[in-house]
Amino acid sequence: MALMASWTGPGTPTDSQNKSNCYAVKDVTDGLPGAVLIPEETSSSAEEVKRAISQNIRWQVAADRKIGALKSFQGYMWQGGYESGEIRSIVYDDVVPALNRWRDAGVKIYIYSSGSVPAQKLLFGYSDKGNLLEYFSGYYDTGIGLKTEPQSYRNIAKDIGKETTPFSVLFVSDNVKGAFILAQELYCIWIRLPSQDHQIAAAQEVGFRVAVSERAGNAELTEDERARFPVVRSFEQIFEHEALQ
């Protein structure tokens, strides 16, 4: 198990433990069901600490937590899987042609994800379509701000030089409550979002244009959502949709 394979260094279990302790104490204090307190190494054996961290991580994953310490550990875990060839991310067939088309048109592509920047690079560096990192000009994680807060999108717009022209950014999600975000014209942002959040509304409030990417297996869109946002069923349709031109 990767948890036992290495125990020190940036991004490894010990580093994640240091970041997680304050969350664990608060979770236990707040009485969250199943929350596991991580003991201090000075007062507990290494095996007890490892066992507690393992239990805490499993609980956080089951609860779909979005804290940085968990994302850091997940990135550490994934690195071993990707590098060994055990894991390959799956990319829709229409994605790479769209990335090529945007790049040929001078569009810069960025990623914004709840996962850490290292985890993002693993996802796109080890895909079933090959290494896609060459397409992206930069990466953002929750260090730029929470994805449900409009200020996060203002921060991104400022960072990519679109602070005064946010309307030139197109926010596309495969679920109104979360998934992937893209931007077109001068800049393109590809953002992976968790399913329970409301980033579409946050991005729209800032002035980003928005659209919904409808994929097989996604949550059904309501009639209100279909009326509020342009809907596309492939990246190719982003280029063709009248409302997105």
TrEMBL record:
GO molecular function, one term: acireductone synthase activity
Record field: compositional bias (Polar residues): 9-20
GO biological process: L-methionine salvage from methylthioadenosine
Keywords: Amino-acid biosynthesis, Hydrolase, Methionine biosynthesis
Gene3D superfamilies referenced in this protein's UniProt entry, alphabetically: HAD superfamily/HAD-like (3.40.50.1000)
UniProt cross-references to NCBIfam families, sorted A to Z: enolase-ppase, HAD-SF-IA-v1
Ranges where the record places region Disordered: 1-20
Protein name: HAD-like domain-containing protein
Pfam families documented for this protein: Hydrolase
InterPro entries: Enolase-ppase_E1 (IPR023943), HAD-like_sf (IPR036412), HAD-SF_hydro_IA (IPR006439), HAD_sf (IPR023214)
